[in-house]
Design brief:
Number of helices: 4
Order of helices and strands: EHHEEEHEEH
Largest sheet: 6 strands, antiparallel
Strand order of the largest sheet: 1-2-3-4-6-5
Distance between the termini: 17 Å
Shape: elongated
């Protein structure tokens, strides 16, 4: 992958769908093509204020919803390949929302799973209050040498 670069705000382009794509969506979701178009229109309205950011490796939509304490980050690699590098997701959250904001990645009940593309989602708490989960002993980051000495394995920082 290319070296990491600073995120830049980019124009959020609303996707236009072909008749074939609309037909496939109608078939997959068991709805009519008109209902697909209505859903697309609703989603476009809901996302009209989202921000789009891009760096050398990732494209991220940042969505803030009025009267909702969570900021939604929708993240994908530019090459659209799968990724689940915790450090990358942490860095994206830090750079686009802030290093003292906490975020969650949800692993939902099977009945609510949405897995339609190599797209990843973080929900970031808008204020800097800690989420009542996780470790509370302060920052602990081990390099490879310390992790090895403790019987673990870690990448170089």
């Amino acid at each position: 992958m290319k070296p990491w670069t600073k995120f830049q705000r980019v124009e959020s382009q609303q996707k236009e769908y072909t008749a074939e794509q609309i037909r496939v969506m109608a078939e997959v979701f068991h709805i009519t093509p008109i209902e697909v178009l209505d859903r697309i229109k609703k989603i476009k309205e809901e996302t009209k204020d989202e921000q789009a950011w891009q760096n050398s490796q990732y494209f991220v939509f940042v969505r803030r919803v009025e009267n909702n304490p969570w900021i939604h980050l929708s993240i994908r690699r530019l090459d659209r390949e799968p990724v689940h590098d915790w450090r990358d997701l942490q860095r994206i959250k830090n750079e686009l929302v802030g290093p003292e904001h906490e975020a969650l990645e949800l692993y939902p009940a099977e009945s609510r799973v949405t897995d339609t593309a190599n797209q990843y989602h973080l929900w970031v708490l808008e204020n800097e209050q800690p989420i009542a989960l996780g470790w509370n002993g302060g920052r602990r980051v081990f390099d490879a040498e310390i992790a090895d000495a403790m019987g673990g394995k870690q990448r170089a920082l």
